[in-house]
Design a protein that fits this description.
heterodimer; A: 165 residues; eight-stranded antiparallel beta sheet; 22% helix; B: 120 residues; mainly alpha; Arc Repressor Mutant, subunit A; three-stranded antiparallel beta sheet; 59% helix
Chain lengths: 165, 120
């Protein structure tokens, strides 16, 4: 298991995720930089992603869809806000409408990914920041619809938050 | 985070329906930051006081906000449970990243990654 540290900050609505991989930084960068490799891991297993546009340059746009078990499509987008290959990638990430363009009613997640060399290994740190708790709730609701079944039980649990006194 | 009581399907529906509207999401965001009177909230939107009051009522039914009287004003504040929920949602997001990290690891373990465009 490559995950070495995870930190959730509920107040700041961030998730920091640290993983180490047995490959050098250039190689790990490739799994982001090559859309065909990115497609192999970005979507959940039952919802593989297909990137139709993939431009990792500042201001660059990516457009993708994930295909569900029944052939249904869920579209998403990235806007690259900063890039320094093979060390750092920053992007906004959100769901898109049928036309593939960002859905303005759904917030974006800001992701900052850094790659550090550690004696032939690579430490990849991802910090994801959500705009609001509501956005997070909504993302999760979409995730539910989009078949992230494994998360289902947890979503039910979290919706069971204590009712107000 | 340990969550004890389960919500019914109706309650889940109410929460997601309440959050399906842009104005209502905005109201929740504002009152989570700081409690506000209904009239102060109404000042932020190009709609009638009554319309804003209706939105607040929808949020109240979903237990996303609570309202209490302060003098002549109705003060709306965000339900802290929303933040607790957010903690659970971060948990979901963490699971997504765990899955991704595993998939990256598998990909890296392959000798010649397919789709590497012959770069190596």
């Amino acid at each position: 298991m490559p995950v070495i540290d995870v930190h959730q900050d509920t107040e700041a609505l961030t998730l920091t995720f640290v993983a180490e991989f047995a490959a050098d930084v250039e190689r790990v960068w490739q799994v982001w930089a090559d859309p065909r490799q990115l497609e192999r891991w970005w979507g959940p297993p039952e919802w593989p992603a297909t990137f139709e546009e993939h431009e990792l340059s500042e201001g660059g746009r990516c457009r993708y869809y994930m295909t569900g078990p029944d052939g249904e499509k869920a579209r998403g987008w990235w806007t690259v806000t900063a890039v320094d290959p093979p060390h750092r990638l920053e992007f906004d990430d959100g769901f898109a409408g049928e036309d593939g363009e960002p859905d303005p009613t759904l917030g974006a997640t800001h992701g900052v990914v850094t790659f550090e060399a550690l004696e032939g290994r690579t430490r990849m740190t991802t910090v994801s920041t959500f705009e609001s708790a509501e956005q997070l709730a909504q993302m999760s609701a979409m995730g539910m619809e989009e078949g992230m079944r494994e998360a289902m039980g947890q979503i039910d649990g979290l919706l069971a938050g204590p009712t107000p006194r | 985070m340990v969550v004890e009581n389960e919500l019914t399907d109706d309650e889940v529906d109410r929460i997601f329906q309440a959050l399906a509207d842009t104005t209502r999401r905005d109201i929740v965001t504002r009152v989570l930051r700081q409690e506000q009177s209904v009239s102060a909230l109404a000042g932020h939107y190009r709609m009638s006081f009554a319309a804003v009051q209706k939105h607040v009522a929808v949020l109240e039914r979903a237990a996303l906000v609570t309202k209490r009287r302060r003098g002549r004003e109705q003060v709306v504040h965000g339900n802290v449970a929303t933040l607790r929920r957010a903690a659970g949602l971060l948990e979901d997001y963490e699971q997504i990243w765990r899955g991704r990290a595993r998939a990256i690891e598998d990909l890296l373990a392959e000798e010649v990654p397919p789709g590497d465009r012959g770069a190596q």
